[in-house]
Design goal:
globular, single chain, alpha/beta, binds 1,4-dihydronicotinamide adenine dinucleotide
């Protein structure tokens, strides 16, 4: 399976969970992966486990100039960027009336502004080369809403509008922008929920189980690869059938 042979991919939030699974899957498919995380140690450790010319980079995606710098460095060290996966994300859950200003700002800055920062930084090069894939990791709660997650749901819904608009702007230049909206996936982000809540949640999922990071990574590889060349501006829901829209 070398469908992404010699391609250069940036994956944010690659130190663990869904991001690590995506980085692993893209590198298995032949890509050279730049693993991005807030801390250098986690990013380098992730890259060390991958095939190809993988490298780790520390970057806070909420920081616009750090993102510009990151893209420059990756291009110097690995080559022009073919694939960007905006996966880094955080939660700061609370009911609306108790949500602090910084809970709102941190979540919007990381989940939405982060994707904007990096998409803008790679877009010009991709447009010039007339090829590129941008894949943004949203969430089903951006489509349905969720109690206790007004900030998070707003950031993920924003990501959908952002992606569709970018898809429209970039389509004529051969740059495809799509969204993956995961349901409930087994990672550090969801580990805090107790065993009872997790099994109650699993009972509500038609496919009868919580998803694994690999369930998302395979879909991202599809969106990065040769079998999705006629898709842009789409939201692929990967949630075991939890949310079904008409
Ligand atoms: P996680 O908490 O296990 O990992 C998050 C990753 O993002 C870490 O590598 C962390 O270092 C990185 N990160 C956080 N803030 C950052 C920043 N400012 N700059 C750079 N990197 C940063 O999360 P998980 O579960 O793997 O989630 C990955 C993505 O999938 C997130 O966008 C999340 O919102 C989304 N998602 C997760 C679901 C789940 O059930 N786990 C469901 C739906 C969406």
């Amino acid at each position: 399976m070398a469908e992404l042979k010699q391609q250069v991919a940036i994956v944010t939030g690659a130190s663990r969970g869904i991001g690590l699974a995506i980085a692993t899957e893209l590198s298995r498919a032949g890509a050279h992966v730049a693993c991005v995380a807030r801390g250098l140690e986690g990013a380098v450790a992730a890259a060390a486990g991958l095939r190809g010319e993988a490298r780790g980079y520390a970057c806070d995606v909420a920081d616009s100039s750090a993102c510009t710098e990151l893209v420059k460095r990756v291009e110097e060290e690995l080559g022009p960027i073919d694939i960007l996966v905006n996966n880094a994300g955080v939660t700061r859950d609370n009911v609306l009336v108790r949500l602090k200003d910084e809970d709102w700002t941190t979540v919007l800055d990381t989940n939405l502004r982060g994707a904007f920062n990096l998409t803008r930084a790679v877009a010009r090069g991709m447009m010039k080369r007339r090829s590129g894939r941008i894949i943004n990791i949203a969430s089903v709660v951006g489509l349905t809403g969720n109690r206790g997650q007004t900030n998070y749901a707003a950031s993920k819904a924003g990501l959908v509008g952002f992606s569709k608009s970018a898809a429209l702007e970039l389509a004529s230049r051969g740059v495809l922008v799509n969204v993956v909206a995961p349901g409930f996936i087994d990672t550090d982000m969801t580990a805090e929920l107790g065993e009872d809540t997790r099994s109650e949640l699993a009972d509500q999922i038609p496919l009868g189980r919580i998803g694994s990071p690999g369930d998302i990574a395979g879909v991202v590889r599809f969106l990065a690869g040769p079998d999705s060349t006629y898709m842009t501006g789409q939201v692929l829901v990967v949630d075991g059938g939890m949310v079904m829209h008409g």
